[in-house]
Amino acid sequence: MAEGLLGRLSGRGASSKTASAKNFEVAMSDEEWRNRLSPEQYRVLRQHGTERAGTSPLDKQHGAGIYHCAGCGQPLFDAGAKFNSGTGWPSFSAPLEDKIETDTDRSFFMTRTEVHCRRCGGHLGHVFEDGPQPTGLRYCMNGVSLDFHADEAAAEAKSVADKP
Predict the structure, then answer these.
(1) Residue 117 catalytic?
(2) What percentage of the chain exceeds 90 in pLDDT?
């Protein structure tokens, strides 16, 4: 049943259509992803799941640092772009340059803009047009899809990500 309509609507169907439709720099088999990620990370990053609002400790994380993709380590967001959206998920006004991609998500009988990691295709969350200025955007991310590196600066994150 998880592979059927209800599975697709809930994000519990087959692995990410985005991840399977495009070749990413970091590519693994489903078995390799399952071995690398926790069950909840796999459900969110590879199957487009959503963690329950208010369950991520990263929602309350307000220190300096860089948020990386929990799947591949790609730096994604600077903590300076983080804000309290009141949604129960970590929210950011902008990603680091060229680190994410978006796709149209038509699950749950609505159209939203899905955000995924440019490097591995992992599902991160969604972006909405109700954020603070100057961007007016709210990148509403699943905390389980992120890995926070405290006190890391964007320049350090870029040099680490560019290494083979």
Answers:
(1) no
(2) 71
Catalytic residue among 69, 72, 117, 140: 140
pLDDT in tens, 82-124: 999 999 999 999 999 999 999 887 876 778 899 999 999 999 9
Spans of all domains in the chain: 5-162
5-162: which CATH architecture? Beta Complex (2.170)
Rounded to whole angstroms, the Cα distance separating 24 from 44 reads 18
Residue ranges with strand state E in the chain: 65-69, 75-78, 82-83, 91-92, 100-105, 112-117, 123-128, 138-141, 146-150
| Residue 12: closest CA among 115, 112, 123 | 123
